[in-house]
Amino acid sequence: MRMSKYLLKTFREAPQDAEVESHKLLIRAGYIQKVSSGVYSYLPLGLRVLVNISQIIRSELNKAGAQELLFPALTPYEWWQESGRDKYFGEILPALIVKARNANFVLGPTHEEVVTKTVSSIVDSYKSLGICVYQIQSKFRDEPRPRFGLVRTKELIMADAYSFDKDKQDMKQSYEIMLNCYEQIFKRLGLKAKKVQATSGAIGGDVNHEFMIESEIGEDFYLFCPECNVALNIEAYSLADAKLNPSEYDLTQQIKYYDTPGLTSVKDVKNFLKNQLPDVKESDFLKTIAAKKNKEIVILLIAGNRQLADTRGFELLNDNDFENHPELIKGFLGPYNLTGNYKIIADYSVRLTPKNGWISGANQKDKHVGGLFPGRDFQINEWEKLSKPIEGDPCPNCAKGLKIHRSVEVGHTFQLGLTYSSKIKDATFLNEQGQPQPYWMGCYGIGVSRLISVIAQCYHDDKGLTWPVNLAPFKIHLIAIDYLKNPEIRVLADELYSQLIEQSIEVLFDDRGLSAGISFNDADLIGIPYQIIIGPKLLNKGKCELKLRSQACLNSGKLEAFENSNVIELDVSHIGSAIKDLLLL
Amino acid sequence: MRMSKYLLKTFREAPQDAEVESHKLLIRAGYIQKVSSGVYSYLPLGLRVLVNISQIIRSELNKAGAQELLFPALTPYEWWQESGRDKYFGEILPALIVKARNANFVLGPTHEEVVTKTVSSIVDSYKSLGICVYQIQSKFRDEPRPRFGLVRTKELIMADAYSFDKDKQDMKQSYEIMLNCYEQIFKRLGLKAKKVQATSGAIGGDVNHEFMIESEIGEDFYLFCPECNVALNIEAYSLADAKLNPSEYDLTQQIKYYDTPGLTSVKDVKNFLKNQLPDVKESDFLKTIAAKKNKEIVILLIAGNRQLADTRGFELLNDNDFENHPELIKGFLGPYNLTGNYKIIADYSVRLTPKNGWISGANQKDKHVGGLFPGRDFQINEWEKLSKPIEGDPCPNCAKGLKIHRSVEVGHTFQLGLTYSSKIKDATFLNEQGQPQPYWMGCYGIGVSRLISVIAQCYHDDKGLTWPVNLAPFKIHLIAIDYLKNPEIRVLADELYSQLIEQSIEVLFDDRGLSAGISFNDADLIGIPYQIIIGPKLLNKGKCELKLRSQACLNSGKLEAFENSNVIELDVSHIGSAIKDLLLL
Hints:
The structure is a homodimer. The first copy, chain A, is α+β, with helices and mostly antiparallel strands. Chain A is 25% helix and 28% strand.
């Protein structure tokens, strides 16, 4: 493709709404264009990357035995009523409803209802199960806060697959096949995806996994155990399940009072007590919070190194409330010796009792008290999840400290079980005994358009994008310096361009005749893996330059030539064969 | 693909709403499935045909120098206001409006606004023009009467292209390139497409053409001149432009009265006058209709062999009106000697004055009058298009009689000129003098999903579909009779299936072990071009059958083997090489 006539313009400045490098670079290098907040066009360069990614996904899904089909974006509203998801999606669906003549549709944000209806009209015997179908198609979400370019958008391209089996065991087997397929896909995309246990959200089902890429463009967090490799989404973790070792507690420890004049925050009290308790930590404290829920006053307990994350209906007490309840000493609350018959609700972090017991307010002004053990010194009426996990929380498998990773989700797989087939009419097959049985389903989604941003975030440097060879929009960026002024260069470049085209090598040809600086900067920004540079200086010596822009997804044999430098000089007469060799033709 | 696990079910009965064979067969053979009126899913078989069609379109558009990109379906509402098409589309747009948070979108029925905005943000110099971009993407229409399967739907897949040039001459050149490209596409799709002059409708611009396939699933009609090959849509034809030969009129003809007691219809009067005027035809009569427009009474004239087609605001006079206007003799109206000062509006068909003049009512009860010539015997105040063209109307080029063809539109091309660039802000480039100029645009659309139905309508017989080889979902349908019962057949069929897969030959493998009758009927219904049949009888002789289901798009060399029969017997050991040869591998 000749750049002089290509729908491509590079920009020096990134748009104001671009916070991260992938977003800035995809816009600046002319891959995508914003149409509206969270709505993008794929310009010719961007579409080529999208197609390359889609083809890898398609080929791996086909290999895994999945069959491609294509559902409409317009999905009948009554099918969403049948599954009950019209209510679940609540606020989101109305924006996606299309009121056509004689029928209401939902602009499909996902297709479980449609696929269940479709398969149930076709597959009526256990003999035709298991079956797995997929599509690569545009989905619609009324995204409240579009962000990071293609990461969070209102219109997105997804590869969504759905498996149908005759029983739970087969469903699990189909699920395993798809997990392996997804791992293969992300590997071929040059991504280090971590398979993480997750929560099911709007989709449903019991077991499910997210595929996460560690990245600063992520808004998800997962927990990882370096000891035993357990990985799970932060939403899926609860200290309720944490393995603890209560035998470590020193229950002989006596209760001890501390004067803490005017000090109410965990941090201030901790610093003040350092003289007496050199090893004291914030996690030794028990934050005690008086709150109202449904007008009733309750006492919330939470470990001192954590924040109250989710106030679901809790309202903190105001000064007026404290005046009305003089037994509650503001700033010095604690569960020990608390008067008044208040319900005590503890965050699961309160299960992590310190060896020497908790320190909390003493329910006396300017006093704290230490050596408190639940059960011995105070009672807990209810347990709840009131705080988010923090680094070092115990692994649910081995109890060692977990690490927190910021990440972006690129895939999500679900064992749906009977979630949909039990609700949707006639979603059954006949088993060997001729009895109708509901399908055992799984569903699997990859964010295809999002992957462009994720891959760009993983593959860039300070000059621009550095696409892996198998994903790059073109394999070769041919740059002819002085193309318009120098006939010798023009003839040579045109000839090489024709040769490459003839060999079906995808080549972007900079025939614009701009200054070398502009052309080089543009080429580095666009990030095609190989650059061939034909310029007047080297041409006098019968040579041109071959520059390696990206090493990603090249096998090591190809890299040998670039061992000492990312630029090598080649005899002009050898370019053709050098390229053939590099691209393994 | 093994049929035992393929998402495919054939049906004996066609759905009730299927009026035409293509619709019946696509449903019965499991290519598509109805989701809602005018909304379909592409099942795995159907998607394979869709992909084959798309790839042909894509490759020809690429050859023509067009660049593929992808726009969103969500198009900003304010852009439609900018072009003024929010008003033009009037009733249609509201159904397509998506009210997302903070923004209203139109679910794009077409993308002129989006592409103009996009190109204008990228192409700023005449040096980068002409440029042509395209996408293959889902479009949305609030179709009032979905019909004929994929012919008229609410969600459809289109290949829409847009050209941008620096002046009118270049626009015309780009237009010619695309016309040639379209002709090539339809040829490769095995369709005889007729390029027809048309009207521009909602898109705009001056010159435009439709590509029409003659077919009973069409709801369009075009006129064709067998003499000079002029072809134009019936909507684009007007007798106002017809070339006439007034010198043929016999103006010496005298006015002559006829008694026509109680006869008021053209047909009755014509039959009655046959004795006196043996050659009289309905086209010799002038229908004279009294009507009200905006409360004013007007007289409409129209040739006797035509119908008042479009009553746009005309209301026929009722009995009461006739009583109030005794000078208007109901059933015997005519323009000659008409009393009362009524405006006379003539359909352009009144330009086709018969050689001996018109016959009309005589404005006297039970009398008609002949030998009337406009200008000589009556005056016409206004001309309008009140009737539709009929077979035999004069060619606008050579005046010979036109033929009418029922047809379905598969493509439409427009010279838009400045229609959009003059309305949309900054849709300009700098010319050689550095002056901003609006782009000269063209736009071009092919109904990709509709083509599945059109091709199915062209390629079927009474047993089922007969896909051209290059469009068929699979090349080979391998049928193993007694697959489940006969181990010898199973081993042979499995081996052949593996061989074909290994050679990347697309094969559908009937491994269901059903009766031969069911398998044969299904295979003929599905319509894959080659069937290989392995059955117990022939296998004893070391042979199997190769059956040719479709000859379409095979070159003649391949057909030689089937000269005497569409079924040939092959040695089992030779199937592999026979198939290779047939498919030119």
